[in-house]
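Sorry to interrupt, but I need a hand with the structure work. Could you write out one complete protein record for me, on any chain you like? Could you add the entry underneath, on a fresh line?
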Amino acid sequence: MNRALLAHTWRAQRLKLVIVCVGLAIWSALLPIVYGTFGQTFRSIIDSGLIPKQLMQFGGGDIFSLSGAMALGAIHPISLILNSIFAAGFATSSVAGERQRGTLEVLLARPLSRRTVYVTLLVAVLGFIAVAVIASVVGSTIGAAIGGVASELVPARLPFFWLNAVLLFGAIAAVGLAASVSFDRLTPAIGLTVGFTVVSYFLEVLGTLWPDAQGLQRYSVFHYFDAKQVLEGNVVVGNFVILAIVAAVAIGWALVEFPRRDLAAPS
């Protein structure tokens, strides 16, 4: 890892990071407030049997409890898009984007090995994700306080929620970086990363809404982000390990592929 390159990357991305953090904090505060205000009403409707419970759930989150509301906020498309600005956008553009613009050669002209450049970019994107998830946790905590349901929140469980989310988006970022070092153009790199993310997301949601498709959820990285169970004190270590393995495989690929690539002059 190169500290100068890392510092430069953080400076270049700090405004974007602030915007993402503010957006995530506001969004994450919203659903606990909704739960605190209307949660009991929603629960009464579901208990009455008027609406199937599956239709009121979304990727493992719901609005019937504080843990469910926080899980829903973390897995909702709005949160996914905001987190993907770094997990998919920055990760894929960090090498393939530089290559497409013809500026990668300038970066690699420094007395740095390709592995050093890659590890520095990996540390940077994981740092961005970690800070963004902290913003989500802070927003959820503030929302729970505003909604009058802060007593249902167990502070000791929040670090596990944070770690589970960092591992999820870190795995996506690792796939994005692996794609980025594998292509000379941004389009295939971001296409592969977004495709991986969207298909994983679809399989998880499909299994939630359609019981017969639950077997497909095991092939989704989102299936191993079990925020509701974590916030209720049921931490499944295997979920953390599987996300770490996905990230490790992508990192291993990148560490092998990037140094041996023949980077010709840009066309």
